[in-house]
Structure formats: structure tokens, C-alpha cells
Write a structure and sequence with these properties.
With 726 residues, this protein is an alpha/beta fold. The protein is built from 19 helices and 25 strands. Bound molecules: beta-D-glucopyranose (BGC). Residues 59-60, 89, 133, 186, 265-266, 475 line the site of beta-D-glucopyranose.
């Protein structure tokens, strides 16, 4: 039951006012921001001036003073004085930028996502934002898709843990409280599985696949009480998500009990016409309202056609009222009826934006997100070296990555940061011209390889800072080749020939194809885009001021032809399993496995695992799903001279079931910090639920039988024990 004042409001609202509430427009339509960049088919739609006073929410307007001005104007114009809700894409930080979510996933530390989201909430709330379109939690297995950068990776369990943490960070205990904002999980559902990695392309998955891998992280957000869910652009079971009643009414609201607001993605209601499931705008409105999309973002079919649909008896007013009540309840939960500005404050913007405390947090998180992929005795760098620094990211400060709501640049480039981190070093730079985005049509750097080699010839070590332009990651940034640009590869081959140790640092929003240049580098650090503190974080890791601890949240392919190459593949009928022969499930020219698999990452420390044990508990058919069926443990010892952080990972495999099961599935992880010589036993409790799966009748079931329990450093390097669980 809605609160009385909300029900009273709805009773007084005209149909046009209700439909305005269900429509979201960019702030420029409300007369303030004439320069806003419009995407999609919106620019072709006609808006009636009189509708504007009733619009319920805006997207991607920023700034305390500006949003207060818009709110004031709106509150005067709105007949019933219903406040606007300001939403925005605050994805990995606001003015203080944090590592891209794919990199945060690599920290395997949910506290990092919670802290980053909490700070992003406080900074953006001060700028007048009430709700963020985050976390994006689409499971991703195809690095050709540019949006892999926005997700925490390829694993359903890691994504779920991370998603819940982000929701907690943004929303706090109660998002009405100062410094918190409401969150919107997106993109429901399975936007991360477009065919061929091409953005906005068809997704087609079996229901089992959807439930088992793609849905859990959205469900984790719902369980963490996320305020809003955004639909995805793609189809689910051949129906675009925004018109998919099964997805929204049956699964999201029915099975999961979600009672918050559902918003379409940008013009996604309109796009059901291009998909070919709506003949026109009226059918688009009918289908999406019936499917349960409460707010239509950036298209106007609800306003244009819902009245006619009601007259024709094709739509029931109860569906409109139900949506409006949900939206008003969200505004009420944010406290907007008492204070329509919420936390907007120019003073707080000054106090909070990029304050020392936030930048320190950004640094502490960033150092945990880079992943050391190779190290043949080169890193950490020694003091007083002559360091050669080359490549398009050597002196760039364009290191924040896509979706940076607050704009800006990194605090310092790698070159500036190295000078600070290694004051005794001599740094020589060569061929450091920045990349242009592929989006702009021209994307390689000029070939100054020969001059660079001349300049770098006498260095003790050469660092090549290579990668892809940040504008070529994120939305609408799909690629069919993941290799470095030709001149970057040429540079790497040439400096290798100088016979000096080479360290390659890769800046990218996705796993790239680094195999062709692997042998050019003695050490490889995957640097991603780590936000405001990218430069300092990478410099601190290279200099050994911080020990790398990141583990891959997404597998790196040898080449793009292997994709998908996620670690939790299904067993086939003709597995290779070390055999030789023609008719096996394999490639002729490449291994089946990833170059670097999920969970992989090196450290300057060395950890030895021993005493791996699995002990079974007494179980029977009545043992509840969350009760322990076994305990697995391992002793981890730091056998090096350096204190380090290790992420101990638990995987399981169901040996035989009614449907094929993956070769391995992550079910738990624990991080420990060990000093030199120190050891610690890490123990995991295994429950029946951890051994259960979604069957083909849409049920989560446990089937007694044999299971492999594995503990290891990553998804490949594990110890195994087989148990039979009744
Ligand atoms: C993206 C969403 C985003 C929305 C609003 C869309 O193009 O797919 O992730 O939240 O725009 O900016």
C-alpha cells in the first residue's frame, strides 16, 4: 500500500502529469543545457512544450547550482510541485575517479568497490545527483565488446559479490542520508553477451545459461535492495528486454520480489520498433508498459500514445498508476518532497571533490587493481637506474577510462609519477606521442621507432607504456582485433633487440591480444585505466613501493579467434585432456585455454600452498541448502623476502549431473597478507547451495554425487580432491 499522501497525489494527477512522471529527458529539454549531446533517435522526436513541466526526471545534468536552478524552475512549473529526480552515470567515481570496474574486479576485494562507490555517492550527491545508473553488472566473456570495462568480469560469483558491495557503497544503510544516492543496476538482462561482441547486437541464450551465469549479479543487487533496475538494449529469448514481460514481471518482480522502479535504457522503448517487435510508437508504449518499464528514457511514446491506448482499452490505467506510485515512492524515499535538492551544495562540492582523503582512497584502490602478468626478474625496478620510457601512455594524463561523469584527467602521468617514486633514477623518454582514438578514424602513432631506439640504447631498463585509447573502450567501442596498433608492436620488437630488460605496461579497458609481443617483454603489468591515481599507482608498483596483488577478473585470449575463452567452459564430448589425436575439441593453431586465465596474477612475493584438505560433514537428503557439507583448507606460506597479499581461490566441479556442468566454478575467495616466512591456514565452508545449479525446468537443484573441490592461486593452478556428497 502506498503512503496516503502519494495515493492522494496520484488521485489528483492528470493523465499527462502521470505520463510525464514516467518520462525521462536530458536537462537541455528543460531549458538549461542547450549544448547537451543527443544520441540515438531522440533528436528526431517532437516534444510538446506543455509536457516539459510534468517530466519526472533528468539524466546526466551535473553541478549543485545548475541542478538547484533546474529544480527551482521545475517546482514552480509543476502544478502539484512534484520534485524532479536527477539521475546520472556515476560509474567509477565522480570528480575523484576510481579504477574502471573491470579493474576493480581484479582487486578481488569488494571493500574497494564499496568504498569507491561510497565516495562517488558523496561527491555526486554534493553536485545534486540523486541516483546513479550503476552498478553495471553484465557478465562479460567477449573482450571485443567495449563495455567489458564497465563490468567486474566473467564470473557470476565475483560479479555478485562486487555488485552487492557497490550497491551498499552508493546507497549506504538508507540512501536518504546525506552523502548517499540511490543505485540502478543495469543492464537487465544479459547485455554482456552480444553476438560477435558487437554493441547493441542480438543476445540469444538458453534459459539455463541465463539463470546460471547472467542473472545472479542482478539478483545480488536486488537482494542488496537496489532502488532501480535498467533494461538492456538487447533481446532476451528473441524479445527486446524493454518489452520482455517474462523478464520484468515474472522473474524480476515475481520471483525476486523487486518492488522498485524499472527504467528503460536510452531510447530503448523506441528501439523495439527497430528490433521489429513493435510496429509503431503506440505498440512500443503498450508493450513496454505492460512489460513493466516504469520510466521511458529519452523517447516519448508513453506521452504520445498511452492516452489513445487507454481509450481503445488496450491498456489499463492501473498499470500507469502502479508505475507512477513506484516513482513517487522513490522520490519520497530520497526525501525529495521535504528537500528537493537533497545534498546539492556548492560548498560541499568544493570540500569533497578530489579532497585528499578521496584521492588517497583512489590510490589505495588503484594499486590493488593492476595485474602483474609476467616478471622475469626485472621488477621491482632498482633505485638509481637509467630508465627509458616510451609508448603513447608514457606521459599521458588521459588515463581515467570511459564513463567518467565528473570529467577530468589523471593527477599525473606515468612519467611524472615515476620521477616522484624514484627520485634517484634518470628518466629518458622517446616516442611518447599519444594515441588518437580509433573512433576518430585514425588511430596509430607516428613511426619514430628508429629514433626511439637511438635514444633508449644506453638505458638500464626500458618501460613501454602501450595500449588502447580510452575513447575506444566503453559504449559503442566494439573491435574485431584486440592487438596493439602496428607501430606500438613495431616499437616493442625494436626495443627488445636493444638487449635491455623491457617492462610492458598495458593501459586498456579490455583484455588485449598481447601474445604477439609477449616475448618482447621481460615483465608485463596490466595497468587498465585506474582513475585519478593511475600514474602514481603504476609508478609505485613498478618501483616496488607497493607489491602487486591484482588477479584477472577476465581471461586474456591468445588471439581473438579463441573468444569466448572464459575459464568456466563446459566439458565437451571430446575433451582434449592431454590426449593427442585429430577428432578432439581443439584448435589446430592455438591452445584451448586462455593465455592468462581468470584469477591469475603475480606478486613480488612467492606463496607456497600445502596441506590441502577436504573434510566432509554428515549430510543427507534433508540437509538444508545453506548448511555445510564439507570444509576445505590449505596452508599458505610466504616463502619470499617480501610481504604480500595472496588471493586464495575455491573452485568446484560437479562431475555428473542432468545437464553439463562447467569444468570449474569459483565459489569463494579469501585474501590474506603474509609477511616473509609467515604462514596461515585458509578454510572454506562448502554448502549444498554452492554445489547446486539451475536445471532445465528453471529450478535450483542439488543432485547428490561426486564433486571436485579445488583450492588454488588462480583458475588453472589448483589442487583437487574428489568427494561424494549424499
Ligand atoms: C547506456 C546506459 C546509460 C544511459 C544513460 C545508455 O546509452 O547504455 O548504460 O546509463 O545511456 O546515459
Amino acid at each position: 500500500m502506498a503512503k496516503k499522501f502519494i495515493q492522494d497525489l496520484v488521485n489528483q494527477m492528470t493523465l499527462e502529469e502521470k505520463l510525464g512522471e514516467m518520462t525521462q529527458l536530458a536537462p537541455d529539454f528543460l531549458g538549461i543545457d542547450p549544448n547537451m549531446d543527443l544520441t540515438g533517435p531522440m533528436s528526431e522526436l517532437h516534444i510538446k512544450e506543455e509536457w516539459l513541466d510534468n517530466i519526472g526526471s533528468t539524466l546526466n545534468g551535473f553541478g549543485a547550482e545548475k541542478l538547484k536552478e533546474i529544480q527551482d524552475k521545475h517546482m514552480k512549473a509543476s502544478r502539484l510541485h512534484i520534485p524532479l529526480l536527477f539521475m546520472a552515470d556515476v560509474v567509477h567515481g565522480y570528480r575523484t575517479s576510481f579504477p574502471i570496474p573491470l579493474a576493480i574486479g581484479c582487486s578481488f576485494n569488494p571493500k574497494n568497490y564499496e568504498l569507491a562507490s561510497g565516495i562517488a555517492a558523496a561527491e555526486s550527491a554534493a553536485s545534486g545527483i540523486h541516483l546513479t545508473f550503476a552498478p553495471m553488472t553484465d557478465l562479460v566473456r567477449d573482450p571485443r565488446w567495449g563495455r567489458v570495462m564497465e563490468s567486474t568480469g566473467e564470473d557470476a560469483y565475483l560479479n555478485s559479490v562486487m555488485t552487492a558491495a557497490a550497491v551498499r557503497g552508493f546507497q549506504g544503510e538508507d540512501f536518504k542520508e546525506k552523502g548517499h544516492i540511490a543505485a540502478c543496476v543495469k543492464h537487465f538482462a544479459a547485455y554482456g553477451a552480444p553476438w560477435g561482441g558487437r554493441d547493441y547486437n542480438t543476445v540469444d541464450l538458453s534459459e539455463g545459461m541465463l539463470r546460471e551465469y547472467y542473472l545472479p549479479a542482478y539478483k545480488a543487487a536486488v537482494d542488496a535492495h537496489v532502488a532501480m533496475v535498467m533494461t538492456s538494449f538487447n533481446t532476451v529469448e528473441r524479445v527486446p528486454a524493454s518489452a520482455n514481460k517474462w523478464l520484468m514481471r515474472d522473474v524480476l518482480r515475481g520471483e525476486w520480489g523487486f518492488d522498485g522502479v524499472v527504467i528503460s535504457d536510452y531510447a530503448a522503448v523506441d528501439e523495439t520498433i527497430s528490433h521489429g517487435v513493435s510496429a509503431d510508437g503506440a505498440e512500443a508504449a503498450e508493450k513496454c508498459i505492460k512489460a513493466g518499464v516504469d520510466i521511458e528514457m529519452m523517447s516519448l511514446h508513453y506521452l504520445n500514445y498511452a492516452g489513445k491506448l487507454l481509450e481503445e482499452g488496450k491498456l489499463d490505467i492501473a498499470l500507469i498508476d502502479e508505475a507512477v506510485i513506484r516513482i513517487l515512492e522513490l522520490k519520497d524515499a530520497l526525501g525529495l518532497f521535504e528537500n528537493p535538492y537533497k545534498d546539492a551544495s556548492a560548498e560541499d562540492e568544493k570540500r569533497l571533490h578530489q579532497c585528499d582523503e578521496h584521492l588517497k582512497a583512489a590510490h589505495d584502490i588503484a594499486v590493488e587493481c593492476a595485474v602483474l602478468l609476467k616478471n622475469e626478474g626485472v621488477l621491482p625496478l632498482k633505485e638509481n637506474m637509467k630508465i627509458g620510457l616510451t609508448g603513447p601512455f608514457a606521459d599521458s594524463d588521459d588515463l581515467l577510462g570511459g564513463w567518467t561523469a565528473g570529467g577530468g584527467k589523471a593527477d599525473a602521468s606515468l612519467c611524472e609519477s615515476l620521477k616522484k617514486a624514484m627520485p634517484g633514477a634518470e628518466i629518458v623518454t622517446a616516442m611518447i606521442e599519444e594515441l588518437n582514438p580509433m573512433q576518430d578514424g585514425f588511430f596509430d602513432v607516428a613511426d619514430h621507432v628508429e629514433e626511439a631506439c637511438e635514444a633508449l640504447r644506453n638505458c638500464d631498463v626500458i618501460i613501454a607504456a602501450v595500449g588502447e585509447h580510452c575513447a575506444d573502450t566503453g559504449e559503442s567501442a566494439s573491435k574485431t582485433s584486440l592487438r596493439l596498433t602496428p607501430n606500438q608492436e613495431r616499437l616493442l620488437y625494436a626495443i627488445k633487440k636493444l638487449g635491455k630488460p623491457v617492462v610492458m605496461v598495458v593501459f586498456s579497458g579490455r583484455p588485449m591480444e598481447i601474445y604477439p609481443v609477449m616475448d618482447c617483454a621481460d615483465a608485463i603489468l596490466q595497468g587498465w585505466y585506474l582513475g585519478s591515481e593511475t600514474g602514481t599507482a603504476i609508478a609505485d608498483l613498478l618501483a616496488g613501493r607497493v607489491n602487486p596483488s591484482g588477479r584477472l577478473s577476465m581471461s586474456f585470449p591468445y588471439n581473438v579467434g579463441q573468444v569466448p575463452v572464459h575459464y568456466n567452459m563446459f566439458q565437451t564430448g571430446r575433451p582434449v585432456n592431454g590426449k593427442k589425436g585429430r577428432y578432439l575439441s581443439k584448435y589446430l593453431d592455438c591452445p584451448n585455454e586462455a593465455l592468462f586465465s581468470f584469477g591469475y596474477g603475480l606478486s613480488y612475493s612467492e606463496f607456497r600452498y600445502s596441506d590441502f584438505k577436504v573434510e566432509q560433514s554428515d549430510t543427507n537428503a534433508d540437509t538444508a541448502g545453506d548448511m555445510p557439507v564439507a570444509k576445505a583448507s590449505v596452508l599458505v606460506e610466504n616463502v619470499s623476502e617480501v610481504t604480500g597479499k595472496e588471493t586464495v581461490q575455491l573452485y568446484i566441479r560437479d562431475i555428473s549431473a542432468q545437464v553439463v556442468r562447467p569444468l570449474k566454478e569459483l565459489k569463494g575467495f579469501e585474501q590474506i597478507v603474509l609477511e616473509p616466512g609467515e604462514s596461515q591456514t585458509v578454510e572454506f565452508t562448502i554448502t549444498k547451495d554452492m554445489l547446486s545449479y539451475w536445471n532445465n525446468s528453471g529450478k535450483f537443484v542439488f543432485e547428490p554425487g561426486e564433486f571436485d573441490i579445488m583450492i588454488g592461486k588462480n583458475s588453472v593452478d589448483t589442487e583437487v580432491s574428489r568427494v561424494t556428497i549424499a
